[in-house]
Every structure is written in structure tokens, then in C-alpha cells.
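We emphasize that the prediction below concerns an isolated chain of 50 residues; any contacts that depend on oligomerization or on bound cofactors are therefore not represented. The input was used exactly as deposited, without trimming of termini.
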Amino acid sequence: MEAVDIIYILVALVLAVVAFYVLVWLLPVIVVLIIAYIIYIFLRGGSVCG
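Result of the prediction step, given as a C-alpha cell string:
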């Protein structure tokens, strides 16, 4: 392996870890927003379809 290949592998690993942590943080937020919207629709008394 050349040094450039090792650098590319390290950069890819760092980006993968960053993407993983962003998704781990973002997924609960999205789920909570969806649940809150469904509860809002339910409390408003409208239909779910709009």
C-alpha cells in the first residue's frame, strides 16, 4: 500500500464515523417531530391525509 491509500482509508473512516454520529443524533429528532405532527393532527381533529 502506498501512503496515499492509507490517507484515503483514514479519511473515509473519519467521514463514516462522523456520518454515523450525525445520523444517530438526527434520527430521534426526526422521529419525535413526526410523532408530534401526528399528535397535532389528531388533536386538531382533522384527517391524517390533509
